[in-house]
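Late entry, written up from scratch paper. The run itself happened at the end of the previous shift, but nothing got recorded in the book at the time, so transcribing now.
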Amino acid sequence: MRLTFLGLLLLTLPLFAAEPLDFTNDREGTSVFSSRSDTNLINKALKQVEAPQIIDAFNELKSEFSSLNICSFDINASVSEKLKKINPKFDELDGVILYLRSQNEFDDSFAKILRLTNKTENTRIYSPRNPQHIRPLNSEAVAYVQNLLKGFEEKLRTTCFDEAYRNLIRDILKYNKNLKGHHLQLLFQMSYKNKIMTRATYLRLEKARINELETLPLSIREYLKKIQSLRNQYPLRDPGERSDFVTMKADKLKISRRQKLLEEYSDLQIILMANVIKKLRNRIEAPKAEILIYDRENVVETIPLEAMERFRLAIKLIRKEMNLLSLNTYFAGRTPDYIDLMTAAYETGTIPASELEEVAGLQDIWNPKKTIWEKSKVWVRTLGSVATIAIPPPYGFIPALALVVIEMTTQKNAINTNDPTVLF
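Output as recorded:
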């Protein structure tokens, strides 16, 4: 019976793979790609092909791929081919990608991968010249790399170029982690001259090297796998909601908060991070909390916690749980910051967009130059407007988020209180 079931399951796998893919943006509000230059690129594309033609071309290609064989280079090639049939002079693929993002056909992470792919493909390579002033590489290093490159073209038959290139660079750096871009340039040239690869493959490798394609955190296939895993485990309550909070620029990075989340954390890590905020919510919204004191067998004393005590306890516990994440095997010593946790909670639906945007709107509490008391005044002053969103007594979840932000964005670890009438 089990063998029969397994056989039926294997037979149905191609059916699942054959289903059209859905790339629709279901989380992000205003795109990070919304500058004046981005708008100009969109307008240039729309002068060459009409908006409905772009949408139709993109929708047609969804049935051409599965989650197993999806590839950013193939997506770009397919869209370009379809639009060139409409206008043979079409050459504004970057503007098309930005237009599709503006129509929520996909999100910023998806667009970023397609844009880097397009940039890589359109990089001009001039006549090969050996890099100057490079220390000659030893024969062992040359032989090792050329042996890897012998099988590279074969791998491209079953692997997307970006993944194959990233794996190639990873294998090269295993041999010598100190190799730089100019070393790779020389190795690729030597391999081409020694007929290890075709000119077409050499040009693709050189374009990838110039654009540092190996630094791409996610391929399209890896991105979709992560998103599908999160959606299967945490179906969205409202696929139509969008948040501008997650598309704000992450601190000290050129990417958005959500891009950072998807690029730097696995689906399991995102779930663990979201669960920390979920616990915070449960504690804040619990009708009561008590401390139970036992003798050897029975409860001998029950100490109920007042509203502010429960509130402060919840704050202490989330700080403790954030520290415990760094000790978790899956995080390997890395401690995610509070913004990462909030973004993860939104990604899994723990925090709806309305609550996230309410906290994001309290601009003063995000200012690292303000003291914890200045931020607290903002929180108290804003509590009246926050109360317009059905806040359960005594304080509610949105002010809790705000207060945690206040504490997490200041040097002090906690609000100091000398009040002897409260436990926490």
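The longest strand covers residues 299-304.
(Scratch paper discarded after transcription.)
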